């Protein structure tokens, strides 16, 4: 039977069951929503962004008052003398596996991005602006799946498309002993070429995919140095590339999000206050709220960061009187202060997941006027033996006026509409939009799948697009037992 046939059969059975049930099953029920007491729950939006447009957005801009300290975006362990990354005229190579893990990521100076291909052998061709004598090169491993690391390759050169490739270097049985690991190679070469080709003939586990994050050509030798101090990067991107039980490479709402990334240098206090929007004029009332969603990424691959580096982040607001929300002691729905240090120390955020944070900022900032929106990394101390890299995403930042609702039933405080995206690999307590009548075992729920143990998946898949936004499809209503995969 086809999928459509099964679906029609299921609908027919469902209708038959409904028709056979007593009328009271449908018409007699208790009130689903608890009574709202003394609350104006009308939402009046003052300002919001889902990062679908870059209009007025400020990229990697440090606040002139708060500033930055002990943060770098330079992850290189080596000072590459004669680095030719800025001399590349063009590049080409084997087709990428997807639209996000592409060739250009090899040359962006960020080991948090990568190139992934299924080609065997695979190749990367770099065309320089002029002929250069290459004396060294660097290849950096990617964030995960060490079995995809390059193992055997050759580096070749030529000066025009009509010439044959000349092999400069051969490597076999190479090992990258960590994620984001830079392997550095010196060359005994005295010939200048304009084009260079890295041809990879085998990866570590012999599988179908090969990946790495950086490819650097240089005219000189490399010298090992400490990281240079700069600032945190904050820019609009597609979204987390490896979201657990949620759709990857998109924001929580829409196709884009904000990514903030850097490296905490040393063991002392490090911070970066980055402005993302300014020249605002938003007056705070007693019922003004701040809301956003945050995705702390495990940017160190499979190795968990027990310093919770990536969780020491928050959205901050600067007011026209020169004060900041992070200085005022505002509290979020979990009882934590809404500043980056307190958010990280709270251990309430979940890695590789979108987490919602909201706070009634009118309790501490009534009468103030918001002029800037910031994203902040702030960590008082870091264990140097642990991982110091962070990469965290933000989406759906909102400032709005609304009273907190007061319900007569505690269960009505739970938002059941979006589900919890439970999977067999990431099992957790389920929240589903279930209405239980007449007993507590079977549920009426909307279904996004006609043939799955997970009948309701709001955020994970995208069967069609509406106005450019990935959407899931509602198949119908079903009767379900207590939600689980087993």
Features:
seven-stranded antiparallel β-sheet; 29 strands; disordered N terminus; Jelly Rolls; 486 residues; six-stranded antiparallel β-sheet; 7% helix; 3 domains; mainly beta; signal; 35% strand; globular; 4 helices; hydrolase activity, acting on glycosyl bonds
Report on this model:
The structure is a single chain. The protein is mainly beta and 486 residues long. It has 3 domains: 95 residues, no CATH class; 203 residues, Jelly Rolls (Sandwich); 147 residues, Jelly Rolls (Sandwich), CATH 2.60.120.260. 7% of the residues lie in helices and 35% in strands. It contains 4 helices and 29 strands. The strands form 8 sheets. Strands 1, 4, 17, 18, 21, 23 and 25 form a 7-stranded antiparallel sheet that branches.
Average pLDDT, rounded to a whole number, is 83
Decide which structural class fits the backbone: mainly beta
- Briefly note the CATH topology name of the largest domain: Jelly Rolls
Domains, number: 3
Name of the CATH architecture of the largest domain: Sandwich
The first-level CATH class of the largest domain is given as Mainly Beta
Instruction: Name the CATH homologous superfamily of the largest domain.
Output: Galactose-binding domain-like
Radius of gyration: 27 Å
Q: Span from first to last CA? A: 24 Å
Spans with pLDDT under 50 lasting ≥5 residues? 1-33
Number of helices: 4
Indicate the overall shape.
globular
Report strand %. 25-35%
């Amino acid at each position: 039977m086809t999928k459509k046939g099964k679906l029609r059969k299921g609908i027919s059975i469902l209708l038959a069951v409904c028709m056979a049930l007593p009328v009271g099953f449908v018409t007699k029920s208790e009130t689903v929503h608890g009574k709202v007491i003394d609350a104006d729950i009308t939402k009046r939006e003052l300002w919001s962004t889902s990062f679908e447009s870059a209009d007025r957005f400020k990229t990697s801009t440090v606040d002139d008052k708060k500033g930055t300290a002990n943060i770098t975006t330079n992850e290189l362990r080596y000072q590459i003398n004669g680095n030719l990354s800025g001399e590349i005229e063009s590049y080409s190579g084997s087709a990428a596996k997807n639209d996000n893990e592409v060739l250009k990521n090899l040359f962006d100076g960020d080991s948090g991005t990568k190139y992934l291909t299924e080609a065997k052998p695979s190749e990367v061709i770099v065309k320089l602006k002029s002929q250069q004598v290459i004396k060294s090169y660097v290849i950096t491993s990617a964030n995960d799946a060490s079995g995809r690391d390059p193992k055997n390759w050759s580096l070749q050169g030529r000066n025009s498309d009509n010439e044959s490739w000349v092999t400069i270097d051969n490597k076999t049985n190479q090992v990258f002993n960590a994620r984001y690991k830079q392997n550095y190679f010196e060359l005994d070469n005295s010939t200048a070429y304009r084009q260079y080709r890295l041809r990879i003939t085998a990866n570590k586990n012999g599988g179908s995919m090969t990946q790495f994050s950086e490819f650097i050509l240089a005219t000189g030798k490399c010298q090992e140095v400490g990281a240079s101090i700069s600032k945190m990067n904050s820019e609009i991107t597609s979204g987390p590339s490896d979201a657990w039980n949620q759709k990857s490479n998109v924001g929580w709402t829409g196709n884009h999000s904000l990514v903030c990334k850097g490296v905490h240098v040393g063991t002392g206090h490090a911070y970066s206050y980055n402005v993302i929007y300014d020249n605002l004029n938003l007056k705070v009332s007693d019922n003004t709220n701040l809301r956003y969603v945050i995705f702390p990424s495990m940017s160190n691959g499979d190795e968990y960061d027990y310093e919770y580096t990536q969780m020491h982040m928050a959205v901050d607001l600067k007011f026209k009187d020169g004060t900041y929300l992070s200085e005022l002691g505002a509290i979020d729905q979990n009882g934590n202060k809404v500043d980056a240090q307190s958010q990280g120390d709270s251990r309430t955020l979940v890695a590789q997941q979108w987490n919602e944070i909201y706070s009634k900022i009118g309790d501490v900032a009534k009468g103030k006027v918001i002029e800037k929106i910031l994203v902040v990394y702030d960590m008082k101390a870091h264990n140097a033996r642990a991982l110091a890299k962070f990469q965290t995403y933000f989406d759906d930042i909102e400032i709005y006026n609304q009273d907190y609702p007061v319900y007569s039933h505690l269960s009505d405080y739970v938002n059941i509409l979006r589900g919890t995206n439970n999977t067999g690999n990431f099992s957790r307590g389920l929240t589903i939009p279930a209405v239980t009548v007449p007993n507590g075992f079977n549920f009426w729920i909307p279904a996004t799948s006609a043939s799955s143990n997970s009948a309701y998946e709001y955020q994970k898949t995208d069967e069609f697009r509406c106005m450019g936004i990935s959407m899931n499809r509602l198949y119908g209503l079903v009767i379900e037992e207590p939600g689980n995969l087993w």
